[in-house]
Amino acid sequence: MLVESRGDRIFNIVNHFLLIVITLIVIYPLIFVLSASFSDPQSVLRGEMFLWPKGINLHSYEKIFQNKDILRGYTNTLIYTLVGTLINLVMTILAAYPLSRKDFIGRNAIMALFVFTMFFSGGLIPTYMLIKNLGMLNTLWVMIIPNAVSIWNIIIMRTFFQQSIPHELHEAATIDGCSNIQTLTRIILPLSMPIIAVTILFYAVGHWNAFFNAMLYLSDKNKFPLQLILREILIQGQTNDMVKMSTESAIKQQREVEGIKYAVLVVANIPVLLLYPFLQRYFVKGVMIGAIKG
């Protein structure tokens, strides 16, 4: 049995202490926001609520789900996330797979061109002019096409294919009569679930949190994603529309706005929190293998 030295014991104690402190720092704001969303806003404003809900009520959630802008933003974001992630995944696989093949002539030159675009771009105004000339302003596609593929994710997936799929497997599939598409769909992809799951998570979270493109390219409020609606509520104080200014006192309005802010944060993050447990078992393996760049 390996005996720990005094230095090892001190290191472990300090290590555990730091991990506990960091965990508390990360978890406390999440619990506070969740508790505040279920608490009486007056208790939150007075600072009486520290960790657990106080004066439990669902009034803030009722206000949220009665607001048509939030429901419309939720629907739009779901569409952008589902369609966008599907296109992202297909394009990333179709780019990463040939680049991982040793027999693909010119793959290094193409990879160099891809990497070049990670560091240099046309800039904001040329990009806006391009999207305008393509007729994508105020359309669904402006939230999907400009970010249809991530070079970073292509590099990670290409590295996964190179390191996890033996070249002999490609040769065996070719001898058995498989075309490149059949090799990819019947052999490579079923063996690549960890990196596919990680890629889906990266893209889906990116789409779910996206608001900058919407702020630049969308002016029709009916097409706003949820994050842009939340931005208006949290920053521009548009919750006044939900709390009936003409019938309620200013103090009561302030309390309700405070509760709505916390409830909106919870509602906006529920889909991502629900998605992560299903992909978690693939996450560590997919990231660690793909993180070693070749």
| Ends apart, CA distance between termini | 39 Å
Largest sheet composition: none
Low-confidence stretches: none
* Radius of gyration, whole Å: 25 Å
What shape does the CA trace take?
A: globular
Please estimate the helix content: over 70%
Number of helices: 13
- How do the SSEs run, as a string of H and E? HHHHHHHHHHHHH
**Number of β-strand runs:** 0
Helix/sheet category: mainly alpha
Overall mean pLDDT stands at 81
Sheet-strand content, in percent, reads under 5%
Write a concise keyword list for the protein shown above.
294 residues
Walk me through what this model shows.
- The protein is mainly alpha-helical.
- Helices cover 71% and strands 0% of the residues.
- Helix 3 (59-66) packs across helix 13 (250-291) and helix 4 (68-100) packs across helix 7.
- The longest helix is centred in the C-terminal third of the chain and has 42 residues, at 250-291.
List the helices and strands and how they pair.
Layout: H1 6-38, H2 41-45, H3 59-66, H4 68-100, H5 107-119, H6 124-133, H7 151-164, H8 167-175, H9 180-188, H10 193-209, H11 212-217, H12 226-235, H13 250-291
Helix pairs in contact: 1-13, 3-13, 4-7, 4-10, 4-12, 7-13, 10-13, 12-13
